[in-house]
Design brief:
Elements lengths: L2 H7 L6 H12 L6 H8 L8 H13 L4 E5 L2 E5 L6 E5 L5 E4 L21 E5 L2 H10 L5
Parallel strand pairs: 3-5
Antiparallel strand pairs: 1-2, 3-4
Helix pairs in contact: 2-4, 3-4
Amino acid sequence: MRTIDLLKSKGVSPSQQRIQILEYLLKNKIHPSVDTIFQNLVNQIPTLSKTTVYNTLALLREKQLIQVIIDNNEIRYDADTEFHGHFKCLECGAIYDFPISEIKIDISSIENFQISEKHIYYTGICALCIKKKGDENGNKT
């Protein structure tokens, strides 16, 4: 589906900024911050401001076109709104997606609560950083 059609399907008026911000998120699965999005789009959209990026992301989240990942008080964004997990590398800072097929969690203690979001979030060292550390130490991995 084209980005314009995706925005319209959720009742969002497709301005140039909204289209390009959503396209950036769809094409760059790096879970960027507002600063990353702004820095990568400001040359293409000279009139872009950080306020516009914040407001657009808030609208896209409200319309369930993106989800928010909170990472040590930094907000990152993900255009994949299907339920999946995230892994944050403590060395390089990259955030990776991973699929979740079936998970059993006992939420009986909050059964009368209204759940609006679910997140599975792991931290550790990614395979690339483990390999890099091994290479730096002269080890073969």
